[in-house]
Design goal:
The complex is a heterodimer of chains A (117) and B (114). With 117 residues, chain A is an all-beta fold. Chain B is built from no helices and 11 strands. Chain B starts with a strand and ends with a strand. Classes of the chains: A mainly beta (117), B mainly beta (114). The interface between A and B is medium-sized, with 26 and 25 residues.
Chain lengths: 117, 114
């Protein structure tokens, strides 16, 4: 079974600075998808960014980018120019692309990000 | 607008009662899921369904039951057999297999045992 590990339960960043959230995963599969979700205090889960394992280029979405290291099974999220609205729980998630019926996402336990004004 | 609706937002259950959490989607998604969220535990999969009239147990299915009679609906029943039901419950849906889309989530139901 796949596992996703987020080793930082809590992090903080100064407003306008850059922060990196770590995520590692364990899988024997070669093709899969990785995601970062944001859960603000409203508890609504919001997709931040996604990465296909077969793509070497790191995904970017405005101030959010990832550092995908397939060999190391690492998928970190970098938030640039941090804003107060970035304060939230962030979840890393894995989804197989190979197995029939492999719709499920496996989530890490999350990292709580605080943004200091 | 398309989306997922979970109701109620807050639910209180007495000991020994069964309660049902509603989840409806109008996204025409094939797959639907129920997750439980506890502090420090992340999201854990309870049940999922890939097509109508079919569903599979997730990692923590004991004490829960589901049905999928319509594509749009995937209600979750928390039975009296669930010993620690107080948690935040999230419903989600996805297009299906073989794509890079993640989930669309509902806004959740907070269940408390009183």
């Amino acid at each position: 079974a796949q596992t996703v590990t987020q080793s930082q339960p809590e992090m903080s960043v100064q407003e306008a600075e850059t922060v990196t959230l770590s995520c590692t995963y364990d899988t024997s599969e070669s093709d899969y998808y990785l995601f970062w979700y944001k859960q603000p205090p409203s508890r609504q889960m919001i997709l931040v960014i996604r990465q296909e394992a077969y793509k070497q280029q790191n995904a970017t979405e405005n101030r959010f980018s990832v550092n995908f290291q397939k060999a190391a099974k690492s998928f970190s999220l970098k938030i640039s120019d941090s804003q107060l609205g970035d304060a939230a729980m962030y979840f890393c998630a894995y989804r197989s692309a190979l197995r029939a019926g492999s719709y499920q996402l496996t989530f890490g336990k999350g990292t709580k990000l605080s943004v200091i004004p | 607008d398309g989306g997922i609706t979970q109701s109620p937002k807050y639910l209180f259950r007495k000991e020994g009662q069964n309660v049902t959490l509603s989840c409806e989607q109008n996204l025409n998604h094939d797959a639907m899921y129920w997750y439980r969220q506890d502090p420090g535990q992340g999201l854990r999969l309870i049940y999922y369904s890939q097509i109508v009239n079919d569903f599979q147990k997730g990692d923590i299915a004991e004490g829960y039951s589901v049905s999928r009679e319509k594509k749009e609906s995937f209600p979750l029943t928390v039975t009296s057999a669930q010993k620690n039901p107080t948690a935040f419950y999230l419903c989600a849906s996805s297009i299906g297999y073989g794509n890079n889309y993640g989930y669309t989530f509902g806004s959740g139901t907070r269940l408390t045992v009183v």
